[in-house]
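Appendix B. Raw example, untouched.
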Amino acid sequence: MSLQNLSKIGQLHPHEARADEVARLLAAANRNLTDARRGENSAETRFDCAYKAIMQCALIALMAAGYRPASNAPGHHQTMIQSLPLTLGISDATWITLDGFRKKRNQNDYLGVAISQAEAQEVIAQATSLLDVVRSHLKSHHPRVLG
């Protein structure tokens, strides 16, 4: 499915990205990764912070591509993650891994399923990598949103 098709079915809305909003989201992703790396935080908190950074990266990528998710519609986190191959060109294996984190977060939030230290470390590593990809992609494809 294309970004245009996701827009036609109401999952995405057209959006003109501004440098100030991209800068705020990049700073927020950095803060969340800093919190995720704090060893004194629980595995659950570390996981949540890194997952939040992933979502901020996915939002930045969508905005740079000219869209915003319909955040009032169910499934917008899934849409944001599954659009990453279209916005950043990430591999299927990567978005499937990231979507697995979304599912794990839901299980933790709504069923109380525990998060292990290993899972926290894995999501932190993936979030760090995704943030690097976003920065590189913005520099090479969307420098205007970097200010």
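End of appendix B.
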